[in-house]
UniProtKB/TrEMBL annotation:
Residues 347-418 form the RagB/SusD domain. It comes from Hufsiella arboris. Gene3D superfamilies: 1.25.40.390. This is RagB/SusD family nutrient uptake outer membrane protein. It is found in: Cell outer membrane. It comes from the Bacteria. Belongs to the SusD family. One of its GO terms (cellular component) is cell outer membrane. Keywords: Cell outer membrane, Membrane, Signal. Residues 35-238 form the SusD-like N-terminal domain. InterPro entries: SusD-like_N, SusD_RagB_dom, TPR-like_helical_dom_sf.
């Protein structure tokens, strides 16, 4: 099938050449798909003009589109690093680890800010370009899938930025709390502004809901989103917003499309990388592939926080699949040094379990917990939970969320949300060279500073820390 569409309208060509020259430099730096670049005779005047071109921009998966932030993973308290290990880290990482007020030094490139906004830029280039194409005779389903993918990527980037650079969502104050810059155009000359947190989350939800209507049920590859990914991400977003009714709704609808769990009894606990490589061997539990952009955890000087490690029963296979006997992190669903940061079926069961527990529906909450755990324990050793006390059920669910979803870039958001409830608030503590460091519940340091050059360039408000 010929997917070439008509070229961009002449009145837009000059502007697009400017935007896409920037994009071309980014693509070259981040290994944008080679076949796309090689077909352009004049790379200084690169202008996407067919669906293949737009898809190629979104398929820059290994360095741009399928990478999620990592500062939260260093800061979330689930792992500890020895003094010797910290001595060898960049100052920025030591600052993140000890929750310093000033994280960045003068040489810092704030990857967790710039990479998501690169994703937003790519998505906006595609969305702007699709508006300028004449769809007569086009492959409509593919056009819709590409548009839906761009909306999904943009929403995911905005969501990830909000977890680090905006305060935790609170419905009572969201319309008065600064959000993040929500850029909806690819024109880099438009100055960034900060709207409210309510505006930020409204845009995230709107993008995802539109994406869900456009995408196929499942992406043709794990690096591409489908309806299942859009619904799963909506469940995650609504959970962060403490809208548990909507979180349960979208978790359930996502599970209608993807519900298979891996039986951990089929994996080799003695292996250095026990899980299959998802992009070559597949993983039926994975809905959408992303990697947390750091190998910080995969060092001999890093071990699981002792209370977390000891919370796994010896018959719980996760203890040996996720960690070595000494507590070093093995990696999980990516089968690599990089943690998995995407979406998977187990998270959906656990989101729905929490939603059920919060409305005192112990039976359904524990049904979802038991569904997951029977696949995680040695065959014949797991005794299903039968607790009836609502508070106890909710605590069980929250404990299992931490144990199941370790090192997925989620713990930081969970802490930000749960710390608002005194029943679950925790103060994180760490030590380095004899000094003790504490991050109290609800501390302003749960929101990272916006990079200084962004403040000076756009004049947006800095976060208080």
């Amino acid at each position: 099938m010929n997917n070439r569409l008509t070229q961009l309208k002449p009145g837009r060509l000059i502007a697009w050449r400017g935007y896409l020259s920037i994009l071309l430099l980014s693509c070259i730096s981040y290994s944008c798909q080679k076949d796309f670049l090689d077909t352009v005779p004049d790379k200084g005047l690169l202008v996407p003009e067919k669906l293949d071109d737009f898809q190629a921009l979104l398929d820059n998966s290994s360095e741009v589109m399928n990478v999620v932030p990592f500062y939260n993973t260093i800061s979330d308290g689930d792992f500890v690093m020895s003094d010797e290990g910290l001595d060898g880290q960049l100052p920025q990482y030591r600052n993140l680890y000890t929750w310093a007020s000033d994280i960045y030094d003068v040489t810092t490139v704030v990857d967790d800010w710039y990479r998501p906004y690169k994703q937003v830029f790519y998505a906006n280039v595609v969305l702007d370009g699709l508006k300028e194409l004449n769809t007569d005779g086009a492959d409509v389903q593919r056009y819709q899938a590409i548009k839906g993918s761009a909306l999904y990527y943009r929403a995911l980037a905005f969501y990830n930025l909000a977890q680090e650079f905006a305060q935790p969502y609170d419905a009572a104050t969201a319309d008065k709390t600064p959000g993040i810059p929500v850029r909806l155009e690819s024109d880099v000359n438009i100055k960034s502004v900060r709207g409210t947190l309510a505006n930020t989350y409204t845009r995230i939800v709107d993008d995802l809901q539109e994406a869900e209507t456009l995408l196929p049920d499942k992406g043709v590859a794990l690096t591409r989103p489908g309806k299942s990914a859009a619904r799963a991400l909506l469940a995650r977003v609504y959970q962060a917003m403490e809208n548990y009714e909507q979180a349960a709704k979208f978790a359930t609808s996502a599970l209608e499309l993807a519900h298979e769990l891996v039986d951990y009894n089929d994996l080799d606990t003695a292996a250095a990388r026990p899980f299959p490589i998802p992009l070559t061997d597949g993983n039926p539990e994975m809905i959408y592939y992303s990697r947390v952009n750091t190998a910080f955890l995969n060092q001999l000087t890093v071990t699981a926080e002792p209370a977390l490690y000891n919370s796994y029963d010896d018959n719980d296979l996760r203890k040996r699949l996720y960690f070595t006997e000494g507590g070093n992190y093995k990696g999980t669903y990516l089968a690599s040094a990089y943690p998995f940061g995407g979406l998977a079926v187990d998270e959906l069961y656990l989101i729905r379990a929490e939603c059920s527990a919060r409305k005192n529906d112990a039976d359904n909450a524990l049904a979802d917990i038991n569904t997951v755990l029977i696949k995680r324990w040695k065959t014949g050793t797991y005794v299903p939970y039968t607790v009836t006390d609502p508070a106890a059920v909710l605590q069980i669910v929250l404990n299992e969320q931490r144990k199941e979803l370790v090192a997925r870039g989620l713990r930081w958001t969970y802490l930000r949300r749960l710390n608002k409830d005194s029943r679950f608030a925790v103060a994180l503590t760490r030590s380095y060279k004899g000094s003790k460091f504490t991050l109290p519940a609800n501390d302003l340091k749960y929101t990272f500073a916006v990079p200084d050059d962004e403040i000076s360039g756009s004049g947006i408000e800095q976060n208080k820390r």
